[in-house]
Amino acid sequence: FQSSCEGRVKPAARYLSSLLSPLPRSKQRKQLVRISTKHPALLQLDVESNLRLTARFLGDSFDLTEKELAAVIAATPAVLGLSIKRNLEPTMRFLWEITEVGGLMQKGDYDGSGGKEESKSSLRKCVLKHPQILALSLRNLSAKKDYFDEIDGGDGSHATDIESTKGTSTLAARILFGAPSVYSLSLEENIVPKVDYLSRLWCSGSDGDDCAGRSSLVENLREYPQILTLSMEGNIVP
C-alpha cells in the first residue's frame, strides 16, 4: 500500500495540483479535496501514460489556455479518467457530426485532432460553456440528438438563418451551441416534459395546424434554447 501511495497517488496528486494551479488557491484546494473524495480513481492513474496525455489532448483539441484547462478539469474531473480513443475522440466526432449536419461547419472539417481553426473555435466555446458534455456517453448524447431531430422534422427543413452562426442550423446543433448544458439533462424526466408544455403553450394559436404548430415550437426553441435549462415549476409554468 505504501509503495502504491508513493508510486501513484502522490505523483498524481502533485500533477493534478499543477493542472489546477491557475485557479485561486482556495478553489484549487477545494477541487483537490473533491477529486480525492469523489474521483479517487484519478489518483491511481499514471501521470505520464495517462493523466498528462489526456490533459494535453484536451488542451490541444480545443486550444485551451492553462487557465481554461484548469476550469474544464474543475468542472468535470472525471474527464481525465476517460480513454482518448474509446471515449473522448468518439464524443468529439459525434459533436462534430451534429455541427456538420446542422450546417454550422463545412463537411469533413473534423480530422481527429480538432479540425480547422474556425470549426475548432465553435466547439471550443461549447466545451468552455459546459465541459461536462465531454463526459456524457454516446448513447446519452445520441438519444437527445434523435429527439431534437424528431421535433425538427428530421431533415432540417425548419432551419432558419442564425446570424451568430452565419448559416443555417438544425435544432440539435442550435441547442448544442446555444445551451449545451441541455444535453446533460434527463431526457424523460426533464427535457420531454418541458417541450410538451412549451408545445401546448406556443402552438395554441396555430388553429389546429400541426405543421404550423411544430414550426412555431422549433423556431422558438432555436431562438431561445436556454429555456430548456430553466426550472419547469419555478420559471416556465406561470
How many beta-strand elements?
A: 2
Q: How many helical elements?
A: 11
Structural class: mainly alpha
* Main sheet: strand order: 1-2
Give the C-alpha Rg.
Answer: 20 Å
Written description of the protein model:
The chain is mostly helical. The protein contains 11 helices and 2 strands, in the order αααααααββαααα. Helix 1 crosses helix 2, helix 1 runs parallel beside helix 3 (47-62) and helix 9 crosses helix 10 (210-223). It is elongated. Residues 103-108 and 154-167 have low confidence and may be disordered.
Summarize the structure.
The chain has helices at residues 2-20, 25-38, 47-62, 66-75, 84-101, 117-129, 138-152, 171-178, 187-202, 210-223, 232-236; strands at 161-162, 167-168. With 238 residues, the protein is mainly alpha-helical. It has a two-stranded antiparallel ribbon with strand order 1-2.
Supply the key terms:
238 residues; mainly alpha; two-stranded antiparallel ribbon; 11 helices; 2 strands; elongated
Give the topology, please.
Blueprint lengths: L1 H19 L4 H14 L8 H16 L3 H10 L8 H18 L15 H13 L8 H15 L8 E2 L4 E2 L2 H8 L8 H16 L7 H14 L8 H5 L2
Antiparallel strand pairs: 1-2
